[in-house]
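Colleagues,

For the teaching module next term, I've prepared a clean inverse folding example: a structure given as tokens, and then the sequence designed for it. I'd like students to try predicting residues themselves before seeing the answer, so please don't circulate the second half yet.
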């Protein structure tokens, strides 16, 4: 009961302008979900439709800019998937230029989502968490680099990783570096393989596709796994040392 009362008191102390900015962030996410669930965009925004749209305007000089701008607009909305853009970019522009356009669009879109969350939601987290936030930020600073890279390999909505990093106090330089390291191999792999599987769903290509993604995940996750193993071994050594001292008394 005291915990609930303390939380309520902390919420009551948050200024109105902080609540207003948080409401804008929530409204933007809700709007993204509404676009997919209750408007024709949900039926239109798929691989086939996006490929057809880009093919129709492929000869125009601004088509790559339109693809990258679509990432910037769509990525911060949270619930709208970026996979149709990835597949369409690789299908229409090929693996090389498609990868460049897709990676650029995703990085810019990620930075937009990061700064939107920082401007609209960060103050709320600071007010709610209080002094505990500083300890969490120090932990993220020490151990959060490779786990943050690895989140780009997980089936999490792209914008939510950006929002989580911004609200947790990840610095801009670290966010950009981890996003680039996570986005680059995954996006190039998707851009190369996904259009080929769309044209010819070959099981061997599909297995190779998944195997590369798993390999990237293992390589990126190994530093975190090694650190956990090191801490576990250290704890086991400390327990063994303590038991030995107790046995000699």
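(Answer key — instructors only)
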């Amino acid at each position: 009961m005291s915990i609930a009362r303390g939380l309520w008191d902390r919420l009551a102390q948050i200024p109105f302008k902080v609540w207003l900015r948080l409401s804008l962030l929530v409204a933007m996410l809700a709007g993204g979900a509404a676009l997919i669930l209750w408007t024709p965009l949900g039926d239109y925004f798929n691989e086939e439709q996006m490929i057809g749209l880009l093919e129709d305007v492929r000869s125009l000089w601004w088509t790559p800019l339109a693809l990258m701008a679509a990432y910037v607009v769509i990525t911060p909305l949270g619930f709208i998937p970026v996979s149709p853009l990835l597949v369409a970019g690789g299908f229409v522009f090929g693996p090389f230029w498609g990868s460049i356009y897709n990676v650029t669009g995703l990085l810019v879109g990620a930075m937009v989502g990061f700064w939107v969350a920082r401007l609209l939601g960060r103050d709320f987290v600071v007010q709610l968490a209080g002094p505990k936030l500083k300890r969490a930020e120090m932990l993220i600073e020490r151990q959060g680099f490779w786990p943050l890279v690895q989140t780009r390999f997980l089936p999490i909505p792209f914008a939510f990783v950006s929002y989580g990093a911004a609200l947790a106090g990840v610095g801009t330089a670290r966010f950009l570096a981890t996003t680039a390291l996570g986005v680059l191999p995954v996006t190039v792999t998707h851009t190369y393989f996904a259009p080929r599987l769309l044209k010819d769903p070959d099981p061997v290509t599909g297995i190779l596709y998944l195997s590369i993604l798993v390999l990237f995940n293992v390589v990126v996750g190994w530093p975190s796994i090694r650190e956990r193993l090191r801490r576990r071994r250290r704890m086991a050594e400390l327990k063994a040392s303590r038991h030995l001292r107790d046995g000699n008394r």
